[in-house]
Amino acid sequence: xxxxxCVKQVPDTTEIRIDPETNTLIRKGVPSIVNPFDGYALxxxxxxxxxxxxxxxxxVSMGPDQxxxxxxxCLAVGGDxxxxxxxxxxxxxxxxxxxxxLACAIKKIEEIEGKFDVIFCGKQxxxxxxxxxxxELAEHxxxxxxxxxxxxxxxxxxxxxxxxxxxxxxxxxxSFPCLxxxxxxxxxxxxxxxxxxxxARKKEIHVLGEEDFDIDFTxxxxxxxxxxxxxxxxxxxxxxxxxxxxxxPEEVAANLAAALDKEGLL
Amino acid sequence: MEPKTKDLWVxxxxxxxxxxxxxxxxxxxxxxxxxxxxxxxxxxxxxGHNTDAAVKxxxxxxADQVIVIDGEEYEHFTTDAYVNALYEVITKYAPTAMLIGxxxxxxxxxxxxxxxxxxxxxxxCTKLGYxxxxxxxxxxxxxxxxxxxxxxxxxxxxxxxGTVRPGVFKATEAEEGRTCxxxxxxxxxxxxxxxxxxxxxxxxxxxxxxxxxxxxVIVSGGRGVGGPEGYEPLQELADVLGGVVxxxxxxxxxxxxxxxxxxxxxxxxxGPKLYIACGISGAIQHVAGMSSSDCIVAINKDEExxxxxxxxxxxxxxxxxxxxxxxAEVKKIKGIA
Lengths: 266, 337
Known about the structure:
Chain A has 266 residues and is of the alpha/beta class. Chain A has helices at 36-51, 68-75, 95-113, 133-141, 194-202, 249-262, and strands spanning 2-7, 9-11, 17-19, 24-26, 32-34, 56-62, 81-85, 118-122, 145-154, 159-165, 168-174, 178-182, 206-208, 228-233, 242-243. In chain A, a hairpin with a 4-residue loop joins strand 3 (17-19) and strand 4. The N and C termini of chain B lie far apart (64 Å). In chain B, helix 3 (79-93) crosses helix 4. Strand 14 (228-233) of chain A pairs antiparallel with strand 8 (148-153) of chain B, so a sheet runs across the interface. Chain A: Residues 22-217 form the Electron transfer flavoprotein alpha/beta-subunit N-terminal domain.
């Protein structure tokens, strides 16, 4: 079995703060991490690898040179080979353009590593929060998709994914090749062992630049993107809230109930 | 694709019983305004099986036209059946834009469709506007876990597509008996073109099912409730208010309450008339899911908790003292013995 896991290096958005002076995001000092949902995708692949002895996991990321760091982290928790897709012409791509670049790069990687049976992606990255690249990539590659995967099991001719739905879960099967996106499962992904971390440090990260694979540059980057950002802003902070006080909880409750009743909310 | 009409479409996702999911009906409301701006019709696109109830609901919620694709293969959602049907009907009519509810299935099929149509899609919008200058829809959405809002345009590709969060817009009151033109499209997908198979369905326990999105009142508990039994006073308050109980991710992750109660980025987005947050600190991921509530009450021991920043009414205090006292007060006001 030949697996590919797509990962993105993202700023840890839980560490992001707003600069009250300029009302903009403070990105300085915010650590870069492997997008957590991509970590769940890698864990999903790694668990199948644990259960079988014929699984190879290739990891790919699109981004600047510093994303090699994210790939090294993936090599320490189940990844066997890692590729960085990097080029100025890819910068500014929206989700459709990003998925196109990835699709072109994946065709090249398959020439080296062999055809992939399953491609795993996180359901979304925590910076863009779009959840679009996975399904768009599946369409570019013409393969079926299963999104919002919690866990996955493998038979010889099918992957069976437990998928989160609006009112519960469902188990879907898809034959190979296919693409699965992962959401947060009920368990935490494995932590790297020291020896795997050291081994990962020494491994080469293969780099695919703009000229290293076939691609139509009119379909990538800012110009190749159907959508563009008109403006960004910090969500307005609600002000004018009223604190309800009182000597006893009963008095507080009475004051609060009176306020809600006045607004016609009871 | 060159648009053939100025029509604005709303995708109406259906349940297996053929009724419309509420998000589609909600989107007819902002859809009306956008259709008028663009000078086209408001069209509801219904896909499902035995869809009479959905078609009726779309007419009663103000569409100018309904297009229906009905077939057995659409009873249970599959990516392939839905994307094939959507692609076929969209290329036939070439509308200028389509709104899709940002449910799990909407966000599954939306990007796949945008990729097939080679057009732009904006994810998980919480605000829709119209950019008069360029004649495009202004799609506004949160990013960076809700820390930043971005307004996106899709200037040169049609149809422009967007998924929109359930619960952000409110459906207009249904106008009983209202009808409009209904077009049936005979579009079918062959079984061999559906490349995933349903092996098993696990619906949430009916006793644990909760309609957060449709609720007028939500009493929500977070880490501060301390355990599963901590939800009892919240449930009692919700009962007298005619509401339901919600939860933060911390409480769901701790196993105190089922995931179906979860409000926030990895749970449901809600917009009730009254949201009472008990023992919830107000992490941005939670706030992202409830900030459009009409009135927010925060009850928390920690006066520094960020939830107070967005609350209309704040109480610094022990929820286990305040909540039962509030229940008693509400009973008094409502005259419940």
